[in-house]
Amino acid sequence: EEMQQVVLVGxxxxxxxxxxxxxxxxxxxxxxxxxxxxxxxxxxxxSSTHAAATRKARLEAxxxxxxxxxxxxDPGVFGLDGASHAWVRRRQTPHPxxxxxxxxxxxxxxxxxxxxxxxxxxxxxxxxxxxxxTRVRTPTFWDGAWSSGGGARLVVMPxxxxxxxxxxxxxxxxxxxxxxxxxx
Length: 184
Description:
The protein is α/β, with parallel strands linked by helices. The protein is built from 8 helices and 6 strands. The relative contact order is 0.18.
């Protein structure tokens, strides 16, 4: 599509996807945004970032389904209630178990060369993102490449896992700031 300097945003599991895209097309990505998302280590799967009990429950649920997929969580864990809860619930779909277990190989230096932001949604904090929250605050993550050269920013949003629903204006401002960091 001839796009250049794209602000690429991955939410939740899609952190795996935006990492893969950036690894393969780093020259096209102007800013990488992990929106309360998985930030993998090379060779890691999404499931390997979760506690053993979570991993076991999800895989057992997937085994019991015709499509090898596990059901989505109740939107209440994202801090949603009322009409927002009902709206999200109607649109949720099961997650394919195969992508949950699929490891991602990528070159840390290539991905770390792209400016990136982790948006941490803290109220309530989604437990399955806890390990990720810790790693992006650790200077040695990605063998130090995550925090090297000032290429990584951390933004805290006091809202739940779906800020595009609970705080769309605030999220928009954060994303525009990421675009602005690219001289847009």
